[in-house]
Amino acid sequence: MTILHFQCLKDAPDRAVETEAMLEGLRVEAASLRVVRPFVDRVDASVLEDAAGVTIGGAGWAAFDDIPHYDAFLEIVREARRRGIPMLGICFGAQTLAHMDGGAVVYDGPREEYGTIEVFRGRSAEDDPLLAGTPERFPAQAWHHDRVAALPPSASALAWSQDGAVLQAFRFDDERTWGVQFHPERTAETFGRLLETRTPPSDAWPIERIRASLKPSPIAQGLLARFAGICAGR
């Protein structure tokens, strides 16, 4: 089984850490994860060959930015969905999935989230293949100031944070396509490693504050292994 990971990061120092974290979370061997950087090199439909699943990672971009090769990337995402390939968008990836289908993604500084947050799973997720069986509340890792403010009509909300103010998970109806605002691939340990080279995202969020918030997030990380199981038909 091969899972295709679109690595969208701007920052080269983060790429190796993200790849390692994806392998650990998905619980697959290195040979089973194909990493493609769509904003470095233009992609076409050939990257979907033999892909049992697709993940779209976080980025320093916004879903509404002028991004190199973005149109070609979006067409590949559309093609993957047309083929029914399971897909998981993470942070920027989730925002892109919502934005490309007519949802609204906005910059929201007052609700930005960095470090470990608490996610609330709604009743709508009780029968969801990815989120069913998770606790009603669980910790997850976050790093964002953009958020999905409105979903496309074809998607349903599954989880939130900040008392419902920030959408944290959704699924497209009748598809195996999910978006999560949080970072299931990150653990407190890998997040801490990322912070070694990061600059503070805002005056209100010095690196020391983010580091102090970090807690284990095994439920969130476990969603990656569950997604891999969906890709494998389990």
Short description:
With 234 residues, the protein is of the alpha/beta class. 28% of the residues lie in helices and 27% in strands. It has a single domain (2-231), classed as Class I glutamine amidotransferase (GATase) domain (Rossmann fold, 3-Layer(aba) Sandwich).
| Helical segment count | 6
The Rg value, from CA coordinates, equals: 16 Å
State the order of secondary-structure elements, H for helix, E for strand: EHEEHEHEEEEEEEHHH
N→C terminal distance:
12 Å
CATH class designation: Alpha Beta
Quick one: how many beta strands? 11
Q: Please state the structural category.
A: alpha/beta
CATH architecture descriptor text:
3-Layer(aba) Sandwich
Low-pLDDT stretches = none
Q: Give the overall form.
A: globular
Order of strands, widest sheet: 2-1-3-4-11-10-9-6-7
Indicate how many domains the architecture comprises.
1
Strand fraction equals 25-35%
Determine the CATH superfamily: Class I glutamine amidotransferase (GATase) domain
Major sheet details: 9 strands, mixed
* Average of per-residue pLDDT values: 96
User: Helix amount, in percent?
Assistant: 25-40%
CATH third-level topology: Rossmann fold
